[in-house]
Every structure is written in structure tokens, then in C-alpha cells.
Amino acid sequence: MAKASFYVYFADENNAKGASARLEDQGYKVNITTEDDGRFLAQADKAIRAHDIDKAEQEIDAVVIQFTGEYDGYSGL
């Protein structure tokens, strides 16, 4: 397993916090920072196997839809 970091942006801090809580319930470690443009970046880290990346992106996508975010991809693996 290797660590993957997923990047999701939110215009609203409450949405970023809600998404963070949901992702943490799914085993992600989430850090929220404020970007220079005022958006909130939720970086969600999780140790996964490379063949599980599609499943992880589906989890991220579901949270993005629920909390009106913008998924910007992942790094790692």
C-alpha cells in the first residue's frame, strides 16, 4: 500500500468541514487550508493499493457531489 492524496476545493468553509468529516469516517486523514483565492482546499490522504484508486475516486466523487466541491485529482501511488 502507498499513500494517495486527493485534492478537493470548496467555496464554502462549512462544506469543506462537512466533506472532511464524511471522508474521515471513511478512513481518510483530511487537512483543510485556505487558498489565496479564498477557496478551501481539503487534502484527503489514505493508504491504498494502486488497483483501488477507482474505488477511492468514487468515494471522493460522492462527497464532492454532496458538498458542492471541485475534485482536482490525486497524487501519490
What does the secondary structure layout of this molecule look like, with pairings?
Layout: E1 2-10, H1 13-25, E2 29-34, E3 40-48, H2 53-66, E4 70-76
Antiparallel strand pairs: 1-3, 1-4, 2-3
What does this structure look like?
- The protein has about 80 residues and is of the alpha+beta class.
- It has a single domain, classed as RraB-like (Alpha-Beta Plaits, 2-Layer Sandwich), CATH 3.30.70.
- It has 2 helices and 4 strands; from the N terminus they run βαββαβ.
- The chain has helices spanning about 15-25, 55-65; strands at about 1-10, 30-35, 40-50, 70-75.
- Strands 2-3-1-4 form a 4-stranded antiparallel sheet, with helices on one face.
- The longest helix is centred in the C-terminal third of the chain and has 14 residues, at about 55-65.
- The radius of gyration is 12 Å and the shape is globular.
- The termini are close together.
